[in-house]
Write a structure and sequence with these properties.
The protein is of the alpha+beta class and 361 residues long. It has 2 domains: 4-240, 3-Layer(aba) Sandwich (Rossmann fold); 247-354, OB fold (Dihydrolipoamide Acetyltransferase, E2P), CATH 2.40.50.140. The chain has helices at 48-56, 98-107, 113-126, 142-154, 173-190, 201-207, 225-230, 235-240, and strands at residues 4-11, 25-32, 37-41, 63-68, 71-72, 83-86, 161-165, 193-198, 210-215, 218-223, 247-250, 252-260, 263-271, 278-282, 287-290, 296-297, 299-305, 309-316, 319-326, 337-340, 346-349, 352-354. Helix 2 (98-107) packs parallel to helix 4. The two termini are 32 Å apart.
Length: 361
């Protein structure tokens, strides 16, 4: 297991990058604690896989260093980093049996046969392939092969880190849930440092102790699922996490008041004046329909019943705004305004969250 340090790390696929826009991975400085489970979350092209491949040694960074337990491994080959990596698509030895595929990393390191047999049995049970242990990998389905890849990545107990690059893409939905649960159990039992790349917020939020949200080649926030939900540090985090994501409305901020299209909204706390574009962000869970004329004028456009609750889509100040209403809650036919829970309003300047006066961000 290892603490992983990213020290002034950056990467460009161009030989002579001339500006920040030429970097696929913009400068990063982070310490990832020994034994924690992290998810790298973001949309396609944000730099997640580039960062994972630099950590694993498959890619040499243009700038900066990678350290495992304070030892510089920036130029060390993958084999010397003592990591296991599972890729998006299955990588298996077709001519070998499932048993031999799972045993290969241990045999390659000279482990005792009795220990190999024990670990292979444990991992096969974990991935639900006990009945297929003596079958050749050739001819198995793509999701079965990916389970073998996952098992081979997890079979060693002595690795510095386990790296997963969207490993459940080819797995059917029911099995995804089971394997996520198994990975969580593995982490709990053995305490490996785990890094899991995904574009799926459900995978990230259910798997990780800390979620690392990436956007445009940089880490915009690292935190617990609760922190990302309640205090998104960047508007992208608010938009990307949640279903639906956070509502954003352009606003003029003055002290504890936001002016939105001529209507004054109480922010619950005071804010210093901020240059540039200012907005407020409010989760749909904290938006309420009103019939008494209080709040922002709104027009109901449609209602989506998703079973657990209803999503009300509204037109507010010329923009779509979402509100969540409980399945039992009624939607007044004469609802024409919305109000917000002041304690759950976030304020943004140029897309970055700003803290109320006198409080830490």
């Amino acid at each position: 297991m290892a603490k992983i340090t990213l020290d002034n790390l950056a990467h460009s696929y161009l030989d002579t990058p001339k500006s920040e826009d030429d970097y696929a991975l913009k400068e990063l400085n982070h310490d990832w604690a020994d034994g924690e489970a992290y998810a790298l979350l973001g949309s396609s092209g944000c730099g997640k896989s580039t960062l994972l491949n630099i950590i694993s040694g498959l890619l040499q960074p243009s700038e900066g260093r990678v350290l495992f337990n304070d030892m510089d491994v920036t130029h060390a080959p993958t084999a010397d980093r003592n990591i296991a990596q599972v890729f998006q698509f299955p990588v298996v030895y077709d001519t070998m049996s499932v048993r031999d595929n799972l045993a290969f990393p241990l045999r390659n390191r000279g482990a005792e046969p009795s220990y190999i047999a024990q670990r292979v049995t444990e991992i096969a049970r974990m991935i639900g392939m006990e009945a297929e242990l003596d079958r050749k990998a050739r001819g198995l389905t793509a999701d079965a092969k990916q389970k073998i890849s996952l098992g081979r990545g997890m079979v060693r107990e002595d690795v510095n880190a386990l790296l997963f690059d969207e490993p459940l893409t080819v797995i059917d939905p029911h099995m995804k849930w089971e394997l996520r649960t198994q990975l969580k159990s593995l982490h709990h039992d053995f305490g490996h440092t785990m890094i899991y790349v995904t574009h799926d917020q459900t995978e990230a939020l259910t798997f990780a102790d800390k979620v690392v949200v990436m956007y445009d080649g940089r880490v915009v926030q690292m935190g617990t699922p609760q922190e990302l939900f309640e205090r998104p540090a960047h508007t992208f985090v608010g938009y990307f996490i949640g279903s639906p994501g956070m509502n954003l409305l352009d606003a003029e901020i003055s002290g504890r008041t936001a002016n939105i299209d001529g209507t004054q909204i109480d922010l619950g706390s005071g804010y210093e004046a901020a240059p540039g574009k200012t907005q407020i962000g409010i989760r749909p869970e904290f938006v309420h329909l009103s019939t008494n004329g209080e709040g922002l004028p709104a027009r109901v456009r449609r209602v989506e019943d998703v079973g657990r609750h209803k999503i009300v889509r509204l037109d507010v100040a010329g923009k779509e705004l979402s509100a969540i209403v409980s399945e039992e809650g009624g939607i007044p036919t004469d609802a024409n305004h919305v109000t917000f829970d002041a304690g759950h309003i976030n304020v943004y300047a140029n897309d970055w969250r700003i803290a109320p006066s006198g409080k830490a961000a």
